[in-house]
Amino acid sequence: MSDMSTKLTNNQGFTLIELMIVVLIIGISTSMAVLYIDNSDDRLKSEAKRLLAMTQLTRDEAIITGRSLAMILNSSDYSFSRMENGKWTKLSTKPFRTILLNDDIRLRFILADSLSASSNQQANLLYFLATGETSQFQVWISNDNSEYVLSSTTLGELSLKKAEHF
């Protein structure tokens, strides 16, 4: 009988190694879960900054090359065109490839100047002339939780701000 009670006392509880393995597995699982948490506000902020950077690059490229460029805005993507021989030609080389937005991010825009007022030009084009002039516009990039506004003056000054009203 004493052999049986000795055997029971030795098998009660977990060893230190078993506990450490369980803690390690929990730690790895937690860190993986944190990596995969969807942070839509950070993604929106990154997309807004990318939109600003691409707008600045388009403006600067037009001035440096002496050739007018345009950004073509749609609700779920934007692309780029260059004026060649009197017509707009879509660009497809880096960095001016079409940029697709995530499914939860949307674009809205207003053009407010004479460059876009002519009836023979598309209403969803932001113009960047070789002289440095640009379309005066406001572009809202948003998801369900937040919104940023990219604004331009006719002199090419750009600003990106988080919308207050959202």
Keywords:
single chain, 166 residues, alpha+beta, minor pseudopilin epsh fold, 2 domains, five-stranded antiparallel beta sheet, four-stranded antiparallel beta sheet, 3 helices, 9 strands
How would you characterize the overall build of this protein?
Helix content is 33%, strand content 28%. It has 3 helices and 9 strands. β7 (137-142) and β8 (147-152) form a beta hairpin. It has helices spanning 2-10, 16-35, 40-65; strands spanning 69-73, 77-84, 87-90, 99-100, 106-111, 125-128, 137-142, 147-152, 158-162. The strands form 2 sheets. Strands 1, 2, 3, 4 and 6 form a 5-stranded antiparallel beta sheet that branches. A 4-stranded antiparallel beta sheet has the order 5-7-8-9, with helices on one face. It has 2 domains: 2-35; 40-162, minor pseudopilin epsh fold (3-Layer(bab) Sandwich). Mean pLDDT is 83; it is low at 114-121. The termini are far apart. The protein has 166 residues and is α+β, with helices and mostly antiparallel strands.
